[in-house]
TrEMBL record:
Gene Ontology molecular function terms on file: metal ion binding; oxidoreductase activity, acting on single donors with incorporation of molecular oxygen, incorporation of two atoms of oxygen
InterPro entries: PCO/ADO, RmlC-like_jellyroll, RmlC_Cupin_sf
Gene encoding the protein: Ado
One GO CC term on file: mitochondrion
Gene3D superfamilies linked: Jelly Rolls
A Pfam family annotated for this UniProt entry: PCO_ADO
Protein name in UniProt: AEDO dioxygenase
UniProt keyword RNA-binding present: no
Keywords, alphabetical: Dioxygenase, Iron, Metal-binding, Oxidoreductase
Protein source organism: Circaetus pectoralis (black-chested snake-eagle)
Top-level taxon in the UniProt lineage: Eukaryota
Length: 243
């Protein structure tokens, strides 16, 4: 059955995000965040005029050299952005991975639109007296909290400045897409740059069927962006959002 009010749904999501993240330290933040989570949980791929697929060849142009003409593993559809939040859609090819990365001082919400994602989540921990394992770069303590599968039937995956702020996202058994809200947006000039990490001991966050003993403390090494990961750009085909 067609859902004729879907244009208003994504508009309402954006408006609620603006209300929620305008005052993240305010007394009504928890209530507003819950309302935003409820709205986001309603969104489906068809609401944004999306059909299951991987990033298209058109996205390669957004990746720039040296990948021009090559389909990127991940592409991004920008929907809207304000000073307090950004919203868009990430599309992952089958087997694609968004490597382990952080969101400094940011809140985030992720809602799967199609496909299956395996999401590993971690918290940063204060420095410890114990020395990290030998490594070639800066090391950080973290708490490997969880690794779960998310589908369109799953509730949104949430992160805060202090909880689940680092995550790795893997597409499982086919292409996948998710609606992403970050608040505030990345902004290197204000200390909100994206950093990538590698687990120093044990299997990578996305490897294997199980990660035993979670939650557990781990050591992470900061790394450059992986050479086989980049993000192209695609036009957003869904209902227009006005703020």
């Amino acid at each position: 059955m067609p859902r004729d009010n879907m244009a208003s749904l994504i508009q309402r999501v954006a408006r609620q995000a603006r209300i929620t993240f305008r005052s993240p330290a305010g007394p009504t933040f928890g209530e507003n965040l819950h309302r935003l989570q409820q709205l986001l949980d309603e969104v489906r791929a068809e609401d944004l005029h999306l059909a299951p697929r991987g990033p298209s060849a058109a996205a390669a142009a957004g990746g720039g050299l040296p990948w021009a003409g090559v389909v990127p593993p991940v592409s991004y559809m920008h929907i809207c952005e304000t000073e307090s939040f950004s919203m868009g859609v990430f599309l992952l090819r089958s087997g694609a991975c968004i490597p382990l990365h952080d969101h400094p001082g940011m809140n985030g919400m992720l809602k799967v639109l199609y496909g299956t994602l395996r999401i590993a989540c971690m918290d940063t921990l204060p420095p410890a007296a114990a020395a990290p394992p030998p490594a070639a770069g800066p090391c950080h303590r973290a708490l490997f909290r969880s690794r779960q599968h998310y589908t369109p039937a799953s509730p949104p995956c949430l992160l805060s400045p202090h909880t689940d702020n680092l995550h790795q996202i893997d597409a499982v058994d086919g292409p996948a897409a998710f609606l992403d809200i970050l608040a505030p947006p990345y902004d290197p000039q204000h200390g909100r740059d994206c950093h990538y990490y590698r687990l120093l001991e044990g299997p990578p966050p996305g490897a294997g069927a199980e990660q035993p003993g979670l939650p557990r403390e781990v050591w992470l090494m900061e790394t450059p962006q992986a050479s086989d990961f980049w993000c192209g750009g695609e036009p957003y085909p869904g209902p227009r959002v006005c703020l």
